Every structure is written in C-alpha cells, then in structure tokens.
Amino acid sequence: MNMNRELEYMFVQCARVWIPDAEEVWKSAELTKDFKNGDASLQLMLEDGTSIEHKLDPKTKNLPYLRNPDILVGENDLTALSYLHEPAVLHNLKVRFIDSKLIYTYCGIVLVAINPYETLGIYGTDIINAYSGQNMGDMDPHIFAVAEEAYKQMARDERNQSIIVSGESGAGKTVSAKYAMRYFATVSGSTSEANVEQKVLASNPIMEAIGNAKTTRNDNSSRFGKYIEIGFDTRYRIIGANMRTYLLEKSRVVFQADEERNYHIFYQLCASSHLPEFKTLKLSSANDFLYTRQGRSPVIQGVDDTKELSTTRNAFTLLGINESYQMGLFQVLAAILHLGNVEIKDKDSDSSLIPPNNRHLTAFCELVGVTYQDMTQWLCHRKLKTATETYVKTLPCLQATNARDALAKHIYAKLFNWIVEHVNKALITNIKQHSFIGVLDIYGFETFEINSFEQFCINYANEKLQQQFNMHVFKLEQEEYMKEQIPWTLIDFYDNQPCINLIEAKMGILDLLDEECKMPKGSDDSWAQKLYNTHLKTCSLFEKPRMSNRAFIIQHFADKQVEYQCEGFLEKNKDTVNEDQINVLKASKKFDLLVELFQDEEKATSPTGQVPGTGGRTRLSIKPDKGRDKSSKEHKKTVGCQFRNSLQMLMDTLNATTPHYVRCIKPNDFKLAFSFDPKRAVQQLRACGVLETIRISAAGFPSRWTYQEFFSRYRVLMKQKDVLSDKKLTCRNVLEKLVEDQDKYQFGKTKIFFRAGQVAYLEKLRADKLRVACIRIQKTIRCWLARKKYLRKRSAAITIQRFTRGYQARCLAKFMRRTQAATIIQKYQRMYMERKRYKQKQAAALVMQTILRAYMARQKYQGLVREHNAVIIQKRVRGWLARCWYKRCLVSLVYLQCCFRRMKARRELKKLKIEARSVEHFKKLNKGMENKIMQLQRRIDEQSKDNRSINEKLVSLETSSTAERERMRGELSRLRGVEEDAKNKGNQVTSLLEQLEKLRKELSSTQKEKKTIEDWAQTYRDEMEKMVSELKDQNCSLKKEKDDLNRLIQEQSQQMTEKMARAIVEKTQQLETDLNEERSRYQNLLTEHRRLEEKYDDLKEAMVSSNVSKPGHRRTDSTHSSNESEYTYNSEYAELEEGSRAAEDVTRGMDTSLTLKLQKRLTELEQEKQSLRNELENREDQFQRARARDDVEFKKARGAELEYESLKRQELESENKKLKHDLVEIRRSLLGNAATGAGAPGSPAYKVVLEQLNASCEELEVRKEEVLILRSQLVSQKEAMHHKETMTEPSAYVEDVSKLKDAGELKQAYIGLKDTNRSPRFMRKPLEVSDLLSRLRSAAPDFHKLNEDGELWLVNQGLKETIRLLEHQLQTQRRGYDSEVESLRGELQNVKEENNRQQQLLAQNLQLPPEARIEASLQHEITRLTNENLELLAEDPTASREARVIILRRMVDLMEQLEKQDRTIRKLKKQLKVYSKRIGEMGAGQTEGQTSPGQMVDEPIHPVNIPRREKDFQGMLEYKKEDELKLVKNLILELKPRGVAVNLIPGLPAYILFMCLRHADYVNDDQKVRTLLTSTINSIKKILKKRGDDFETVSFWLSNTCRFLHCLKQYSGDEAFIKHNTQRQNEHILSNFDLAEYRQVISDLAIQIYQQLIKCMENILQPMIVSGMLEHETIQGVSGVKPTGLRKRTSSIVDEGTYTLDSILRQLSAFHSTMCQHGTDPELIKQVVKQQFYIIGAVTLNNLLLRKDMCSWSKGMQIRYNVSQLEEWLRDKGLMTCGAKETLEPLIQAAQLLQVKKKTDEDAEAICSMCLALTTAQIVKVLNLYTPVNEFEERVSVAFIRTIQTRLRDRCESPQLLMDTKMIYPVTFPFNPSSLALETIQIPSSLNLSFLTRV
Length: 1895
Hints:
Strand order of the largest sheet: 6-7-21-8-17-11-12
C-alpha cells in the first residue's frame, strides 16, 4: 500500500522518466498525466514536443526509470545519484563529458575515464601538487586522485597496492597508466642520484615503440599487457621497478589488416633510414617492405616517426643500453623487414626455391652474420627425425612462406623479451624493497568480425579480472554494512565462475586445445568437434553457430556473446618454429647480440616476459609453478598453458594487494574530440563492470548520509518541536514521519542508509516544501509591496490635493497683487514717460548749443594756429636761406682761397722746377728721394699682407712716416736754402721756364687724375653705403632667424626634457622589473643551495652515525657552512680541507660516488649562485652608474656652458683692451699729422676722425655693459650650479639650462652677432696700410669700416690668446693638483699609521688603572715628541730648533694639564668623602663600626661610580677569544626567543653581537672579526636547521639577522647610511674593516631565513585554508549539503578539530603579534603578510578549480564574505597598503564569477571586463564546474561558455590552469636605522653573558 502511494506521488504530471530508444539507447520524456495504479499505459511527451503513449508490460507492469533531479545530474560519483540505473549513469557521464568537459567520474571504487581524443592541460606538475596529500573524495575525480589514494594507503596500511587499468583498444589505458606512474615519480622521488623515477618514465617510450601499433580503433594501441611493480623503500621513495608482460601479438609482425600498422619501431627505422648511422641497414621507405605496407596506412597524422625514434634512443641511453647494443637491436629489426621481402617461389607442387642473388636475403644474411646458402637451404627445407634416421624434406611454397613468417615472429618475440629483461635490469637497485604499487595496463574485451586465439586469451583474462572485481566490490559493501552494524542480506550478483571453468577447468577449452596439440595429426576441425561433443550439451554458456562447423560461441559476463573461429588456434597455441633456422642463427659469429637472444633457449624468457626478481626485492608468496622444475621441457609448453599460468600469478598478486580500478571508455569509433556515442558507451559500461557495480550498490543501500549532513540538508522538512539536541534521534523521528516504509532506510552508527530512489523522494519533498515556502514568501512580499504602493499612492494623492489647493490660493492672491501693482505701475509709468520726454527736449537743446559754440571756438583756434605755424615756417625758411647763402659764400671763399693758394703754389712749384732743372745734383737728390719713397711704399705693401700683426705694423708705419715727414721737412728747408741760392743765377731762367711749361702740363694731367680719383672715391663711398644697408638688412633677418631658432631650440629642449623624463621612467620600471626577476632567481638559487646543504649535512650525519664505532674517526665541524668558503680568508680553507679529510675517513669503505656527485653539484650551485650574485650586483651597479653618468653628463654640459661664458667674457675684455689701444694709437697719429696741417683741429678729416672715435667710445661703453651683464649671468649660473649639485634627476639640469637660456637673451644676441661676423660670408680681407692712409688723407674716408674690421681681427686674436692662456692655466693646475694629491696620500698614510699606533696604545691604556693611564699617556707623548725632534734634527737643524721650542711648549702644556687633572682628582675625592658620609648617615642597618674616611675612599662605591662610568662607555663589549664559543652558545644556540621577546628590547642579540664586533674592529683584530662573524652565521644556520619548523624561532632570528645587517650598514661609514645617524652614533662607526662582503653573506642568510619563515607559515596555514575559506559555512544556512557518494567529501559542518575562518584570522594575528614582539621591520612584515595572503588566495582558488561541488552561487557568497573578513583584518592591522589585498584579486573575481548572471551576451561582456586577473582557462573551468545546489539555480549553457572563449581568445596569457602556490615574492630588506644608542644597552643577567665587559 505504501509502495503504491509512493509511486503515485512520484509518477505525477511533469515527472520525467527514461524510455528505451533504438538510436540513443535511452530517451527522456515527461508525463502529461498522473499515473494511477491499474493504468496500462503512460501519457508522455518527448523533449522535442512529440506526444506518445508508452504501454506497460502486462506481465511485469514495470514502470519506466525515473530521472534524477537536476541538482543531482553531473555528480562526481555515480553512486551519489538517487536513482541508480543504466540511463541515469549514461546521462550523468554524458553531461560531464559533453557539457562540463570532465573526463573522469567516480563509480564507487571505480574511476571511469573517457578518452577525450584531445590534449588537456590537467596533468601538469601543478595539478600533481594540488592532488598530493588530499583525500580522494575532497577533490574532483582524477587519475592522480586514484594514484594518491594508492600511495596513501600503502603508507598508512603497510600493504601493497595495485591500480588496474582496463578498457577497449583506444580507450586510453596506456596513457592513464603512464600518468599514474608519473604521479608516483613526482610525489615520491628517489633515494639516490640514479633517477629511478626518470628511468621508470623512460621505459614508456621504449615499450610503446616495440609493443604498440596503430589499429582501426587506436593510433597507439598496446598489443601486449604489462604489469609494472614500482618499488618503494621504508620512507616510501621510489627505489626501482619491475615489468611483466603478457601475450604479445606476434602475428602483427607479419600481417596487418587494412588501415592498421605494424609495431611503431619499424616505421621509425624506415623514416630515419637517411641518417648516416643507419646506412648499413639498407632500409628505405616503409612502402618498400611487405611487413610494413600490408595495412596501407604507413603514416599516423600528427606523428613524426623520426623524432619518435630519437626519443626512443634517448630512453635506451637513459636505461643503460649503449649505442652498440642499440645498433644491434636496429640490425635485428632491419633484418626482420628484409626477411619479409624474401620471395619464395614454387619449384613444383611439393618443393619451393628462392631465386639466386636475392638482395633482401643477402641483406638479411649480412645483418645477422649468417651464410646465404644456409638460409636458402633451411627456408625451403625441413629436417625430419625418426627413431632410426634423419632426412631432409622439401617444403611447398605455402609452408616455406609460413616458416619464414614464423621465424620473423620468433626473432621479434625474442628481441621483445630481451629488451624487457634489460629494462628490468636497469630499473632494479640494490636497496631492499619495502612495498610496491603495481600498475596493470591490460587489454579489455575485444570483439571483431573474426575472433581468433588472441581475442580468446584476452577475453579469458578479462573474465578473471571481472571475477576479482566483483568479489572486491561485494567485499567492500559487506564491510561497510558490518561497520555500520546494518543487517546484512545476501545480494544476488552475477558470478562468472562457470564461464571461467568452461575455459580453464579440466576438460575445458584450453585443456582440450593442449591435448589436440599433442596429437600427431591434430587439426582445428578435430578440436572443434571435441568441443562440441564435450560442452555443447553440458554447458549453457557454450554454443555452436548454426552455419559453421569450425567456430564456437561463448557467452561472457554482461550477456556478451563472442563467436571464435577455430582456424589457426592449434598453430598459434603450439607457436612452432623450424629449429634448423634457429641453429643457423645461433651459429652467427659476427653478431653477438643475435647469439645472445637464442642462447640457452631452454632457460630463456618465456613469451610472457617474466623476469625473476633480483637484488633485495621482496617477492610475494605465490604457489610455485610445477613446470619450472623441468627446464628441459619448458619450451614445449603451449602458449595457452603459459598464459594461464602467468594469469594465475597475476591474480595471486592482485589478491595479495589492495586494488584500485580505472575503467577507460572509448566515446566513439571515429576519434572525434568530445563526441559521445551512447551505444558504444553502454557496450563498454556493461563489459567493464561499471553497471554491475551500480547494480550491486542499488541492490542494497546506495545512498548514505551522516546524521549531521542529513539534518543540515533536510532541516526544512522538520518542525521546530521536532528538533532535539540529539541529532541522531531527531533524524530518526523525522524519517519515520516522512518515509513510512522502514525498509527504505536503515540507521547505522554514523550514517543513514537509503534505498535507491529515496533521496530523490526526499529531494522532491524538500523542493515542494521550499516551493510552498517560496510561494508564501512571494505572496507576503507581493502583499507588502502592493500595500506599500497603495499607501504611497494615497499619500501622493493627498499631497497633490494639498499642493493644488495651495497653488490655487496663491494664484488668486498673486492676481490681486498684480492688479494693484499694475495700477501703480501705470501711474508711475505715465509720469515717467512725460518727464522723460521733457528731459529729452531739454537735452537736445543743450547739445545743439554745445556743438555750435564748440564749432565756433575750434574755427577761431585753428586760425590762430595757422598764423602761428606760418610765422614759424617763415622764420625757419629765412634762416635756412641765410645759412645756405652763408655756406655758399663760405665754400666760394674757401674755393677762392684754394685756387689762389694753388696758383701761388704752382708758381712757386714752377720756380722750384726751373731751379731743379738747372742744378744736376738737385736732380740726384730728387732721384734718391724717389727711390726711398718707392722703397717705403714697397715695405708698407709687404707689411700690409701680414694679418696677424697688422696693429703693430700700423703703429710702426705711422711712427716711420712721422720721422720721414720730419726728415722731409728738414730737406725741404734745405732745398729752400738752395733755392735762395739758385735765384741768383740768371743764366738758367730760360731752361727753368721750359721746365715750368712742362710742369703746367703735368699739373693739368694731375688735375684730371685727381678728378678721376674723386669720382672713384664717390663711387666707392656709395657702394660701401649700399653694402652697409644690405648688411643691416641681413643682420635684421638673421636676428629674426636667430629668434626663431632660439624658440625652436627651447621647444626642442622642452620636448627632449619630457622625452628623457619618460625614457628615464620607463627605463627605471624596466630595471626594477629586471631587478625583481634577478632577485627572484637569486633567492630561488639560495633556496636550492640551502636544500642541497641540508641534504649534504643529512648524508654526512648518516655516514657519521653509520661509522661511529670505527677507531680513528674524526668528526667534522657541524657548524661548517658552504657560504664560509666564499667570504672567509685563507685560514678557513685549511679548516675546510681538514673537514674534507675527516669526511673521507668517515666514508672509507662505502660507495663514494654519491658524495662526489653531491659535492660537485654543490660546487656548481655555489659558482652559479656567485655568478648570479655578481650579475645582480652588476645590474645594480649599472643602474647606479647610468644615473651617475647622466648626472655627470649634465654637469659637464653645465660646466661647458659656464666655461664658454667665461671665455666670452675674457674675449670681450680683450676686445675692450685692444680697442682702447687702437684709440690711443689713432689719437697719436692724428696729433702727428696735425703738424702738417692735414689733420689740424677743425679740418673735415679731423672732425670725421673725432666722430669715429666718439662712436668707438660709445661702443666701448656698450661692451662694458655687456661685460657687466655677462658677469652677473655667470654669478647667477654659479649659484644655480651650486644649488643644483645636490639634485640627482637629470631632468632638473635640462630644465635649468632652458631657464638660463630664457634669461640670457642679451647673451644669445651677442653670440649670434659674433657668429654672424665670424662666418665666411662676412669675413673680409683686412685693409692694407696704404689704403688706410689714403682713406685717412682723403676728403671723406670710410672711418666706419675701420672699426668693424679691426673688431673682427681683435676678436679672433683675443679668442686665440684666451684659449692658450686657459690651456696653460689648466696644465699648471693639473700639475699642482697631482703633486698635491701625492702629498696628501703620503700624509694620509702617515696619519693612518699614526692612528693605528694610537689605537693600540689606547687599547693598552684602557686595560691599565686610571693613575697609570695618565702616566702612560704622558710617557707616550714624550716619546713621540722626542722622535719627531730627532727626525727634524736629522732633516734640518734650523727647523729642529724651532721644533724643540714647540715641543717644550707642548710639554709645559701637558704638565699643566696633569696638574689640573690632579686637582680635579683631589676635588672628586673630597666629593666622594662627602657622599660617603651622607650614605653612611642614611644607612638603615648601620649602627656601629663606621669606617674611616680613608677607607671609604679606597672602597668602590657602585651607586656613585656606575653612573659616572656609563657616560664614558663607547658602546662596545669586550670578550676573550676562548669565550667565543660560550658567547655563541648562550646568545644563539640556547637562547629562548619567547623570554627575550617579552622581557627585553627587540633585537638585543643582534646589538650584543655587533657591540662585540665593534670591539674586535676597535682593536684591529681581523682574526677575531672573521671567526665571530663565521660562528654567528653558522650558529644561526644550525639553530634554524634544528628548530626550523618553529615559527617563533624563525621569526626571532629573522628579526635579529635583519637588525644585525642594519647595524653593519648603519655603522659602516658609507655616506648613504651615516646620514641617518646622530652625532654620537657616528662616533661608533667601524674604523678598520670593510665588512661589505659579510653584509652580502648576512643578507643571503636573511633571505634563507625569510624563505624558511614562509615555508613554516605555509605548513601551518595549509591545513586551514581549504577548510576555513571553502568548506566551512561562515554564513550558516546559505549553502545546503548535496548528497555524496561512496567517496564522501569533507563536511562543511563545524565539528571538533575543523578549521574555520576564525582559525585562519587567529593564526594570522598570532603571526603578526609574534613578528611585532620580535621587532621585525615594518616593511618586512608587509612583505610577509603579502606572501601569506598570496598563499591563501592561491590555495583557495586552486581547490575551487578542482572541486565541482564548491562552484555554486552560495559558495561565491561565502568566499566574498571570507575575503571581506581578511580585508577587515588588514585594515585593523594597518596593512592595507602592503599589496596583500591585490593578491586576493583572482579569488575575488572567481567568487564574483560564481555570482553574476551567466546568460546573455551582455553578461559575457561584463564577465570579460570583470575577470582581468583570471586566465581564460580559469574562467572557462569555473563556468564548466558551476553546479546548482538548489532547483532554483540554472546551469551555464555550453553556448555561453563558447561565447566567453570567443571573446577571450585574443588574450596573451599563460595556459596554466592553477596558480603556483610555491611562488615566493622576492624579498628586500630596506635600510632601517636604529635610534638606540649602543652605550645605553644593558645586558641582563638572564643571558649568562657575565664574561662580556662593557667598554
């Protein structure tokens, strides 16, 4: 009754069911009408809208299968489905495979893997790390999860494991097995340097090459089965492996079907035949050989056989098979190919022959080293033995061909076994095996059109495996029920033991086959008849085909009937080969490998490939094979017998291990990516046992819930009164009310078990309840919204009415006011208009009167002005006319005077000529004068050509001309006297008259010449004026050009400044990026170096512990560090050598190869680290040099500019000097010419010269102003340069230069003018002296040009002189600077030596008592002065006397100081007496026995002395050399961080160590400095190695190491660091040693400690992150718990020991408070927090991407809430700016992606713009994994995901799916100086450092 009611409740309208379908196997339909008990049919509607009537079976009345709710579709585990049946399983797999692109699904204990026929990025190392250490049910299904489960159970249960991978050909078995082995190799590692895990993986390409081939179903089908045992030691690390093979398909060597290939190795060899090393094999294309061309498909698309052969050869090399053996293997394979091409022809009906000189047979014989005749003989003949004789029988062509093929198969099988044997040898080690994990890669069920012996064996093996699988599943179910104490009832399941008995039992198929093989004339037909007679009537599983007498049918499990053809069974079972052919091959003398293959064939490896275990392997206890004892008959065993025995051994092995099952499914036969064929999938699911597992589970209680999960999920079905404190009782009461049939569920100890379909029933009840609740909520909300809307409308209506009435009242009042106002306005408007009209008329009258009066006044004024101007014009004109008349008169008078004087001069000249002609010696004198004048003219012309000394020559010529004029005057006076004498001679009058006539003629010609010269002068003057005007115009244009150029230069300068600034910013960003990358690589190398150091130390400790009982053992120093060898001095190398000798003594007698490899690797890593460190330093130096170079270049540019301004100033000064000099010279010359009258004052020439001189003086004044301006410019530039020297950015200099250019317009104008004058276009040849004199003597010479030409020459000369002067001064200064530097260096060296002596003496004096210190210091001073005196006396006695006087004065001063100190001491003693009396009077317990004052003085009174002495402390701690170990032990090794952090100042150990280091530096003890630093570094490393997992310890020493590093920087003396110090701190600077290298070592140590801190934090946070961030429900009730399958996930309900978000926040707070207590630098804390948040975000996101159940809307809300709590924590700690929030951005965007709408294109665009921190693979993965938790949510459609992929395809990003959780940001240690004074630090007694003395 209850059942019927439940069915009626489930089969209602809109219920969905599954109905059978011929094409899709199962089709979904929906009920259109409720089903009632007794109905004969169901009314259904298909998904395409078709309505059908589904009739029920009248006998069974079985209803169709119900569909699971949508929220259960796509589950990770098929057992989580409520309805467990075939259509539900098929649909779930299809949804996961097609929609979500998920290829793995759990089915109870089975992992179902569907071949995607596409490369997926889910097998990387990041995925392996994500699955490592996780529970199998906590992550999405994966082959790695199965491997991790096997690895974990092996370690936990101490039991061997097996992973059984099965499936059809092409389903992906080999790949799955390969990935499982890769997982073990990655997570476990090996124990030696032999790289066993790499060898295990390297065996795969070899076995694929020789055992895999292309079939019609698979391009890389394994044609053999293999079982690989991966061995582990006690620490569960890989130590070796062993491989067993099963049933190699030898027939493929000689025959392949269409579209198939032979084994890959043959095609690889043919493809590589062009290589030089393969020329001897005589191979060619694969189409040329019979054994490789039969399938007619020699090429696999996308596979490069040449490259594959290279991979195979590399794998051979890795496994220890050398090149010679490899070439031998290739020879055998090539020989097989040639053997297949040997053509055998019929000779007659009973014999055959091989044509002579067959090239392939010749090649075969050459390759294997046998004779051609032997092979020809035994390929066509056979030897038969009888009891009495042996004879040779010929073979027909067919038999000979079969014998040839049998030989080829036999050779290949032997070669295959040999390779397997050597691979096993390479994988076996001498270390004892503790446990193993076996990986079985074996063929699944095979059914072809023609099934033969191979398919029979394969299906037989699958029957055995299926039986083992059924028993294991049944056993697990039984254990689960017994564990939960549920009544156990037998479940009926299919047992395939009858089928196995049919095959292997006595008189079974195999037994009859072996028996028939022993018969002399046995055949396949006779064997078939025996099968029919034996089993046809006795076994229901055996059938005979109707149309055949040579075949039989076996019904395998899952109703799978397979028909086998009997043809070839006997031949394949016997596996015979011609022994004579084998003997020929054995006789090969040239090919040792071939002999090795066939030698001891009786003991050779069987076709199963089994290799006995060697080494220290632990073998399973298996029943021994009875046939093993008879080795002589081993080769006579049939293949079927061997296979049965090996299969039994395999089953025994599997039964002795814990199995894990992987079932590979082939989704389609066409190898299409993500294409699902339901028919093929159902066939495989039935064959591989998945549906059988489902059936077994469904027969019991498949659905299982814990009480807490059931309560959380179905809390909505309970009433408040039903909820009790006992959750178990609550669930029991609720279930009894909800499900009346108690057989539908059972209560266990911790779980509730449900029958199939009950969860769906409960889900329907829950959905109905939620739907009712939703309707009620909607109803209430809608009512509330409607009422709220109504009230809002009513309020709005009332408000509108109120405002409307008020508006109307206001309008009426407004109208009344406007009416009254209008009346008033009209009154005033009319009044205003009348007044305005009157005022306009009045104003018009006034304007007219004003204009008329003004016009009359202007007319009168203009008349007066005209009269006044006329008077002035008349006055000026009359004056001008008078001046013109006066000038004409003056000119006429002057002209008359000139004419008169000329006439008188002519007369006088005529007289003189007459007299001159009359006297001969006068002629001689005149001739001599002319010659002298000509000589002078020639000298003047020659001197005028010399431009460089024109000024000096001008002066000399003017001087000589003056002297000559004086001489000429004397001569003229003498000639006048002679003329007086000649007047008396009358006889010469006639001749003189004639001469006078001639002179008149000459005078007329001279006048003509004069006029010509005057015309030329006028023309020249006009030309020069024109040229001057042109030059002025050009000057103006050039000025404009210069202004434009200056403006363009300024713009370009500004652009260059901006461009340079941008380039500097970009270069800086690039350098910072490169620097961060270099830091990251360098710090990763430090991590690797530390890991190798720890490994080396562990190995060394293991060696020491293993040899501790040997005599003479020397233990190496445990604090030795590899870093020590890099930065210590030569003495350290001796210690290192001694340690290495000790290590050699320890490891004597052991295998030292490992140690040597480790040492070599360690040395290489140290060198690499050093090179990277140097590279990092070089990069930083380059960066600094680049910036410094820019600064220097700009300083040079500024210096050059200033130098140019200085040169310009000097040039102007020289020009001024030369102009003054020229002025003086011209005045002198003019004064000299004044005597002759030519330049007399008042003359025109004199005026012109004076005007020119005045102009020169004005120009001089202008030049003086320019000099003053330029000097002020230079001063301002120097000040600006001094101000800018402290700036470091080059852009500042550029801006400053541009500003100076703007401010210096006058300077630029001057420079432009100079450049213009200096250009060749305006350079003219200097004037000659004659031209200059002619211009001076002419009537109007061009005096303006003189100054211009002289200026150009002077500028040139001044510039040259300035350059020479500057070069001389520069050389002089350089020589002086060099000598000064040398002297200063000598003085500096002397000062250093003196300083060292002073420090040593001071150190000695500090150890003396105070009285002795003064005497010692005086004695030292006297000694020093005496030595100085002696040195001075030796050098200079005079100076020595002066020095003696100085010394005596200083000695007197010292004596005075001594007396003063004595007085001070006496005064202090008196004060001590007074203080002691006061203290004695104040003593409470002192009543008698008072001490005397003298005694009080001698006793040390600490209350008085300590404060006094502390003022003199220097912040140093002194210790003895032998106390160093005690110091390190008490301060580092045995120090408890908690006590120091709480009670003392932060960083106290660092301060103490630095103060000890300061004292060692103070006393200049390099050995002490080195040993202290080395011991400190090694001790810190030791304590970190010992307590590296303690966060408090690591944080404490990170803080102290950084503080110690900061102290080394702060007191190093570098300018960059000491500027932060106080004056007192600068007195504590290290004086003797530069510890920069040790700073680098300590920085590296700090990096290692930081990485250890991050690792420690990660180990603490890792278990909390997933539970706290994902699984725990911070907001209770938001997300419901979905049903789980057999692989139960971690519950999100809070239990004891479950981590929550509060746990993470508390842990983060604990980390932060600990670091703050330890005084960690704030910047370092920020970096640590950033790394913490990155780990949290990366781990959370990675788990989210690998967990389908976490990708839901409610989980996105939980994540966002958790992230907000983390941000709130950052805000509380003041760490929002540390960059930690940005590291959570990918997680935030993933949570937002889970919550946003995912339907339309707008949603896709929003997602693409939102998820910028997520990669495309991550976005698509989240969308694929999105799973609705409730029925109200919807899945993401495939079309939407494709839209997202299309929009994101242009992104350039990494294809990696998961974030790198091991990534550590590069750490930096910003300089953080301490304000703490070293002299104020007190050492607490709790540290036990009393042996330290404060100095």
